[in-house]
Amino acid sequence: MKLIFKPPHVRNTVITNEQGHVLYSTSTAFSFDTRVTVVKKHVPNEFNIGKVESSETLAKIEWHTFSSSVIEFDGKNLVTSQFIPTKGILGRRRVFEGPDGRSYKWKIGPRECTLMLGGKEVARHHPVNLGFKKAGHEAYLEIFSPVEHMVDLVVLTFIYVEKLRRGSQESPGTDRMHAPIEPAN
Fold first, then answer.
1. How far apart are CA 54 and CA 106, in angstroms?
2. Which pLDDT score, from 0 to 100, does residue 184 have?
3. Which of 55, 73, 79, 131 is least surrounded by Cβ atoms within 10 Å, i.e. has the fewest?
4. How far apart are CA 156 and CA 71, in angstroms?
């Protein structure tokens, strides 16, 4: 399964499948205080690509600078230091427990994030490729069959770790330049 991010900034984006159907979207309103990213899940319109039948809020991420961020998901407020804590010497790993009781690990690299189950890759982020050395493509998240039963959780945790990865590379406020996005109804 391939989920395409347009634009690639995870806090304000529309996420589609390969056919162009909108499956998720994120929006983060500008604020001088705590920012909250709303992650919506959409039911695509089968006859009108890019349009949605209905939407529901999947999660909210309340970003904190000096304390743990909080993710509101599945009726719970999850403190990120407990829900998806840092692992490893340099803190480049984030681990969470899936609904199947297994431990999943996001490896945060300099250009992409990879989700591991045991020693096996189960999801991988592919950043935008402008096409200088090989064929260009939009940023996308490739999700393999072992985690297709928990796509919502994979997308949500990816948004969180990708923001952390980008935050260590970009100047403050880079993704705030991109206005919140809503798919067409």
1. 30
2. 54
3. 131
4. 9
Q: Smallest Cα–Cα separation from 177: which of 4, 6, 5, 9?
A: 9
| Per-residue pLDDT reduced to its tens digit, 134-170 | 777 889 999 999 999 999 999 999 999 999 998 854 4
Look up residue 78 and give its amino acid.
L
State the alpha helices, DSSP H only, in the chain: 80-83, 151-167
- How many angstroms separate the most distant Cα atoms in the chain? 50
Angle at 161 between CA 156 and CA 166, to 5 degrees: 125
Q: Please report, to the nearest 10 degrees, the dihedral formed by the alpha carbons of residues 82, 74, 17, 103 taken in order.
A: 40
pLDDT in tens, 41-77: 998 877 787 788 889 999 999 999 889 999 999 999 9
- CA–CA separation, 64 and 102 (whole Å): 27
Q: Which residues pair with 126 in a beta bridge?
A: 140
How far apart, in whole angstroms, are the C-alpha atoms of residue 30 and residue 180?
9
> What is residue 47's predicted lDDT score, i.e. its pLDDT?
79
Question: CB of 70 within 8 A of CB of 77?
Answer: yes
Torsion of CA 41, 45, 50, 52, to 10 degrees: -40
**Tokens 């205080």 identify what position?**
33
